[in-house]
Structures
1.
Amino acid sequence: MIELGTHTKSRRDILDKVERISEVDVFSCYQCGRCSGDCPSINLMDILPNQAIRLLQLGEVELVLASKTIWICASCFTCTSRCPKGIDIARVLEALRQVCLRKNIDELDLNNIPEEERERYPTIAWVSALRKLSG
Amino acid sequence: MKSFAYYPGCTMKTTGKAFEQSAFAIAKVLDIQMREIERWNCCGTVFSLTIDDTMHHMATIRNLVRVEAMGESEVLTLCSMCYNTLKRANEFISSDPVRLSELNDFMYKEDLKYSGHVQVRHLLEVLRDDVGWDALKAKVTNPLEGVKVASYYGCALVRPEGAGVDSLEDPTVMEDLVSSLGAEPVQWQSRLECCGSYHTIGHKELVFERTERIVSEALKAGADVIILSCPLCEFNVGSRQPEVAEHVYGFKQIPVLYFTQLMGLALGIDPKELGMDDEAILKLIREKVEV
């Protein structure tokens, strides 16, 4: 069973890093849920964006880092634009991706892309996917 | 004649050729000179969102150094993602002398320096602010009367705050453009929604879902055609439609054009010069207007 609400030193270190490189104070979120309500890709996420922020507040950093959510977000900035507390949620999710990618853990495995499809994808798709999903 | 340094971006030379070709065609009619930057490189396509990552802005800013070398102070882009990336990286680096000098230090071997003074512009801004809708109307020889157009902004053209060409939640620049061409802008739901962007590579089911929604909303609003300003949106919302039709029962398709192509038709330019060889699209427009 997962014990919630424990801020161990290593968890605190990761959270500090996320807050530092995103310049966002995750504790300023008051859980209104607007980000999740307006997210266009919510149905493919396993944790809602507001839940991800709540889990970070509770110190459950590993749960968020292991979620699909951080990789499904494509930084469309709808949540960021509409957050009543001015929290840049897209930046928090990018920081979480960066925590993984900087350990050289890639999310996108090019071997899974069928060869016949590779040639038709626009350059812009390749560059952005590799920038967002590989370390 | 208004002159700009022109930054194409990678996709304008591959799947987005029609965008570039049609932009040059309408620029000629409107007396806008676009001089392509020499030795430009990829802008990176997405703005790096972490603050400790100056190196990821290097490729972007290098293009602005080339703009200054041309003696120009403004750079014009067509692609929404290039625009967003160039504009935000420019603001991020230029607004902080420490970051600017850090970035310049990366280029010491080339003896290049960026002053931080280049202005990044999108063609839609130039049409609205420099050309003006009245001047554009005066050039229309072939008003697109009766053509109902859904303007699709997506993300990069409007978000986040301060990075867009227009209002964050209620932009009108594309609808104003459509009206100036004599066509009818439709009011619709999904014009600011993300198309799924780069997930087209690893998560195409996500993109199919987005496209299904965006196209259905446009059709529901009575649109004949969707216009947009991004070659990745074009791929997802446009080129992917036949695949969506295979996956979603009852899915109806709609033609997708770059805004410059629609402009070209209204300005009386030969469709071939607009990179429009798709007979289906032309047929649809011809039913309403003689092109």
2.
Amino acid sequence: MADSIKKLVCIICPNSCELTVYLDEGEITKVKGNLCPKGVDYVREELYSPMRTVTSTVELKGGVLPLASVKTSKPIPKEKIMDVMDLLADVMVWAPVEVGQLIVENAGESGANIISTKKINKKRKH
Amino acid sequence: MKRREIDLAVIGGGPAGMAAALAAREKNIKDILLIERNHRLGGILKQCIHDGFGIELFNETLTGPEYAQRYVEKIHDKRIEYLTDTMVLSLSPDKKIIGASPDGLLDIRAKAVILAMGCRERTRGNIAIPGSRPAGVYTAGCAQNFINLKNYMVGKDVVILGSGDIGLIMARRLTLEGARVHAVVEVLPYSSGLPRNIRQCLTDYDIPLYLNHTVTGVCGLKRVESVRIAEVDDRWRPKPETTKEIKCDTLLLSVGLIPENELSNAGGIKINPDTGGPIVDENLQTSISGVYACGNVLHVHDIVDWVSMEASKAGVKAAEYLTGIKTSECNIKIKAGCGIRYVMPDMISGTRETDLFLRVSAPGRNKKITLKDKKKILSSVPKVRVNPAEMIKLSLNGLDLSGVNELEVQLEDG
């Protein structure tokens, strides 16, 4: 029997329950310390399929700023974060950009699009 | 010098200033001037490209620039006049504002003023870290500005002192951009950041958090070459035998925020030493009649949504002042008692519904917050968990405060 114990802080609400998770060969057998059932759901998602929204920047040409801030349109599997970051390193867009503008479709096979989070105007020519 | 008369001047075009100006406009104040020293509206949100903003107010999670843009668009829609690249140099008790703008000096005479200047970061000088003075020491927010707005990377091997939210967010940001964050060092026995940031910024990337530790020295002549860290005792004194050296080229400081009140001070506005912000009544009016304060210049918030809500209130109250609506006298003093770091506001009327905003001094579980008139307990609110990183809102609705002169807020075991 490969029993193990993991400690997690639930981040669903400000109660921040300190959870103790008992695992048997990777299977959750018991969760202690949660004040509500959401704690168990949180543990299940964090241990089996953690998802994160990635936010970063891409190079912007012709704009009043050198970078456009971007995000994934929805949370992606945690293990895909670095794939998305590698992909963003080579992305370049032209000003102007609008909030919500599509930058990359299905980034790194993550199922999420990369969208702009900032409105940036073109640089005026003098 | 250009002279102007104005009904309402709002100093600062970040989330607080924008929400305050919009709320005043909703109350039909026509003559509003929003003054921003930066080139664009939006304040610090422009560089906070991470998400988590807007959950309380819009029920969705937005990045900083997205949150700011919603307000910038409303400012345009409502045709609120604003000046950018304009720095307010002085504010006098008779509400005369001197500002430096690209068009020269401005002399603005306002009937009401809202202070929304935000806060700034505590620096190395403020916390007196010994060692040489090489390049590579930044405040976390400064590094955030360089990386997210200017496309300058600050370093490759990084140590972060302080586990406030900006430090945690920057630990993740630097890691995503290819740097190695070797340690986050926190002098307190607990992190001063939100639990979700510990999880998603440190644990996700296996970045070690050293609690009860501090930076005892910075080494390097031209550029940071290493920092020394050591464990501290319960009075924050480093234990020399625990010293270890971490090779790095960059030290980021995330060691607290200070409300930016130079203008308020010089203008004769009284400051609360616990918050570092102006003393205000329940209407967010400062010690000078017709001058209001909101957002991080009043007290440092953890969530921008609450900044916006507070600022809206300041805008409404300034509008009421301008239209001659009388407010109740605020004679009940609020005192931060045992276990409470501060309470805002400082004075209330006791005659209308109001909320107190407060922070506890240390984390705890199974506590209660009590409100006392001398020794008599007027109310007691249980709290499963309290954390200095999380501001607490306490409603006073339905509480009979007649005859009360001083209301003391205390944290007790539940």
3.
Amino acid sequence: MRGLAGQVAIVTGASRGIGRAIALELASWDVKVIVNYQHNATLAAEVVAAIQAAGGSAQAVQADITQPAQVQALVDTALATWGAVHILINNAGITRDALFMRMKDHDWDAVIEADLTSAFLCAQAVLAPMRQQRYGRIVNVASLAGLAGNVGQTNYAAAKMGLIGLTKALAREVTADGIVVNAVAPGYIQTEMIETLPQWLRTWALDVIPLKRFGTVEEVAPAVAFLASPAAAYIIGHVLTIDGGWVMP
Amino acid sequence: MSALTFHNQVAVVTGGSGSIGHLIVAALAERGANVVAGYHQHDVVVNALQKTFSEQVLPVQADLREPDAGQLLVDTALSRWNRLDILITAHSMIANAPVAEMSLEQWHAVLQVMLRGTMGICRAALRPMQRARYGRIVTLTGYQPLAGALDQANYAAALGGVLGFGKALAREVAAWGININSVAPGLIERAQIAAFDPSYVPWATNIVPLKRLGKPNEVVPTVLLLASEAASYMTGQTIMVEGGWRMV
């Protein structure tokens, strides 16, 4: 992706799944990557090692990004290490699936905080350095579940459509400063997260997706890298679906 | 289509004293419904509604930040009229600030009322609707999560959350005859505008093809349609009432 070389990115939740693929994709364009993780230091270290083995630069940084102080420390680490933050990928997310009438309040709250409030905090923390350099790219990893709903995921759908709302509101506020904010909405992507879905739902999904298969993380990452690149300068507040044709909104 | 009537139906409306909410309460009552008008402030408004519609409108004060507020409104409807056909969430609360200056308290305050409050009352309303195998839930949201808005990232996120939640829930409860839709007003003359930047009204007027803000009563017919039996094949939808602003 032209123009990305030498830039600095923070990718939240980058130790596995889609986040890991985004970190590797950005690194392949010579972006220096902060590999944020919350729990699994070993997996994060493996992502960093893979990037370094390919000649790139990366650093793993542990942070619970629902906590403002830890978010600030994450951004400060990027600034201290590489002197700038050009790209923020709000990718971190969790699921706590249950049918709504059986859903526990703490499972609702945990998903809203981890998938939505975290993105607000991270975006807020990168605004100052991005405004100073009058350049920035923020890409929020939302979900088709937000745009189209999904059985058993009322909390996740709320958080992810909330993230799309945040994307558009933030985009209006910061475009004048050269900061471009967009979102991607992956559909059913082959990750650990999808393994937790019930078999009937996966069967149903394969039936409604015109491509008749789940996507791969490698099919999501390039779209994120594009929106994170200088080429996306006139794409504002967009939600790019990557869903094998499931919804075609 | 026959005129929208709600004879013998029972509705709960949150934000029943609000700019749009009180008009929804009145419109439902005029068309025969019995209505619990939940409200937090402005009891003058709901008391006037009760005076006009006497037995048909029951104002109940409830703070949707309280965990049991939704249950209270639903239980009041059930104990008074023994059924619940319609839930309309029309409450609204803003705490505007640019993202760079928005406190985590402002963020959470709006999410608490607009998203979690809506979730809570939907949960309370679903049980009687499931028993009756009929229900209509209409959430009043807004253009913010669809079009963005200055100084309202919290409101856009919360209302977006309501939209995503509503669609996921619509898929879960469709089999019970419960349909969940949303009306997203565009730029409307309402009390909240006072909190906006003074440039807002001229800007909003200029960008809309109709060259004026919408009036609260122009939002009501779409709400009534989605709250009615006529909306039997509509669920998970969001209808914008926006004067041609965006046309998407």
4.
Amino acid sequence: MQPLYIIILGSLIASCCALLGCFLLLRKMTMLGDAIAHAVLPGIVISYIVSGERDHTAMLIGATVAGLLTTFSIEFLSKKIKLQQDAATGVMFTGFFAIGVILISLFANKIDLDQDCVLYGEIGYLGLYNDAFIPIEIWRMLIILGLIITFIVLGYRQLLMTTFDLAFASSVGIMGALWQYLLMGFVSLTTVASFESVGSILVVSFLIIPPAAAYLITHSLQRMLIYACLIGIIGAISGYYLAVFLDSAIAAAMSVACGVELILIFIYVKLWKERVLSKAVY
Amino acid sequence: MTYIDFLLQNIHHVYIGIILICTASAIVGCFTFLRKRALLGDTIAHASLPGVCIGFIISGTKHPVYITLGAFSTGLLSAYLVDYIVNKSKLKSDVALGIVLSIGFSVGILLLTSIQHSNNAAQSGLDGFIFGKVASLLQSDVMIMAGIAIAVIVITILFMKEFVLISFDPSFAKSIGLPYEKIEFLLTAITVLTIVIGIQTIGVVLMAALLITPSAIARFWTDRLSKMIFIAIVASIFCGIMGAYLSSQIPNLPTGPSIVMFLSIVALLSFVFSPNKGIVYKYLLKAKNNQKILEENILKTIYQLGEANKRFDAYFTKKDILEKKIFQNFQLNKGLKQLKNKGYLIQSDESWKLSKEGKIKGQRITRLHRLWEIYLTQFLHLSPDHVHDDAETIEHLITPEIEDKLTELLGYPKVDPHQMEIPYKD
Amino acid sequence: MIQQHTEAPILEVHDLTVSYNKKPVLWGIDFTIPKGVMVGIIGPNGAGKSTLIKTIMGLIPISSGFVKIFEEAIDKVRLRVSYVPQRESVDWDFPTNAIDIVLMGRYHKIGLFKSPRKADIDAAMEALEQVKMTEFAQRQISQLSGGQQQRVFLARAIAQDADIYFMDEPFAGVDAATEQTIIELLQKMVQKGKTVIVVHHDLQSVKKYFDWLLLLNMHLVASGPTKNVFTDELLQKTYGGKLSLLSKVGDLLKQHEFPHRE
């Protein structure tokens, strides 16, 4: 059963990240997603140390707070202190991540997290130490996916309008900042929930790559959301077998599989487009 | 043990390596900062990990030449891939950076874990590239790193003018016939080189900090490029040495994150305390402005009381002042006391009058207020009932130089829009 | 100066100062606009024309003064006000089609957490028909020409069915046919009693298009009916460069981080 669980969990995480990543991409905030995925680390570690065990509620809260804090401090640095946005992002997330790594190293005997786990997670051990029929991680991700889908379905028009044309959205009275922080809150929540299983690499890859690939092949936001999920899920499945084949980290293999999909789609779009263009000329 | 003793006793190849890397990355970082490409450094660093692994797989050893060559090739490739994606598709630059970063790094981890599981004895320590591995640096590693760092520093000094030009004004650089592509390639190449030697100390994940944070710190202390580079180098070396020292003293403390932590602390301190841009400075400026506004308003009010009574040597009570203009009570008390101490007011019991200097100042503020009101009505065509509030602010701000221009422009008017006389200097 | 105030104005801007980074970009703007006129906002680059309408829409904070539309604060009357941003302000590679953009204009009529009904889609199609874009309803927006994109923006505004319209350079970078379509539509709207306020660049067409003008260059040079305001003397004042003293004082405010009001 274990390979199936790993694939299911990978697909769930892929779907969560891909859905949110579409909005990050369209808002040109991809690197903010990357920054949050790194910056939640101290939040996770501190709640770990404080609660003394893997208390998931504490971790979710601690890390979501850390994620929102990152968003807020980057905004504060760039708007109030006038540090250019890219530098503000770089300074903030490296600082947060460094503190997280340091805490992990210093409290290594108190918490069973290590540097490798931070990067590529423990998805390989999924369900091994647990008697439950379906591992708790899968239930947790399922709930979060449900929350994200509810959020996107209910707030679709607000998300669409604030993403496409913030000035117009504000002019009809939609609160841009509210939707911005809701979105970032969900990004933090997803990052944290998936962190232990897949580590920061795969979270970042799933946030960025499937949406980018979907963006290249469709002109409809709804289809982009669906395609991104599919691309993420295919990446999760093929990545698992790639990892078995290469005997390597599962999270990294899933991420590489998504990358291969993106490259194939990129080539397809180039060739197809050029053919259409040459037809149009002659 | 004092800090100097610590320096003398531990001058060691590791520290020489760190000093050189910090210097090179601070210089190169200033240019990536100015070109608003701070996050490109992050991408290159992550994307040089597969190169490290490929170098190892091809050569079968961890010899620094192969590792460095491998890292350099994939690092450089990644920089060009980002440009390629932006130019050849509708994806924007932030997404392109993210794509290259995450695919590059994942391929690196894939190869790395695959090598680790292959039970090759030579591989141990390769994962040091992820978070850095200062302690295990060999003298031969440091020699190569030092050589590259010195080359980077020399190239930057030689091509300083060209780098500055293409960073500040690319179109101008092209228009004067500079070989733009070649210079940009050189700058990218030395950036990649710096990152490649940096990842051995600080690791690929946090290398971006060594590029971005020192320049961000320096930007808060100066507006001039030469000073900025100098400050970035000093901050970078300081944090590098402190971080390395601390991690050598505390077991389990990894060097890379420790250096980054020091950089972040210095950055935070700079954001808070730097002159002209820091939070504290802005707060003090605000307090100073409020102080100035309060004092000048009190002097102006007493002057205008004197004007109304046609006697500038008369004493006025707090009640008189408050009838003319609204002040908060504690503010008024504070202001009166300070003005008395500064010699602008003379107190007798519970009433005050202007000293000679106080009268000059009160008169000046009144004059500026009325002149600005005239300016707004004549040049901005505001109606006379709309100009008072604006003048209430601007009167505190006008410099003697602007005052001269203003009076000349208005032709030494006698009265303001409300027919109040304009008090010129006696 | 020439500044004509009106009885029962539909829009009142009172002593408005707006700052960017503490530096005022609009000083003491004061005017009123009557109902049912076509208004042009004219002035050189950097005069604060876009800033003025964004501030009126409540998108930029006010340093001092106030704005009233239908004698109310903007937040109370958003349903009756429509805003058309500059075409370049959005990313036209966005994965969506023309009709989805127009449906954004029906935001309030669709209601919170609901999807568009047939009535909304009909209204959106009707709006597209008015701008002669029916056949492009399903077209992805990046495949539209600049003029067509501007028409989609106009259709979105029509779908809002507002009483007062603010448009930021609707004629910038559009073809002559689009400009003609747009101006005819706007004039029809004005005949129905709506008020249309347009940021405009091309002095040639000012007399033809607008009943009422605001001449702006960081301060209001003049406001009133076109025939009174569109004079060589006032244009000279508007386009004759910035007031150097005003800029200097603005720089001082920024440099000292001075509060614009005590």
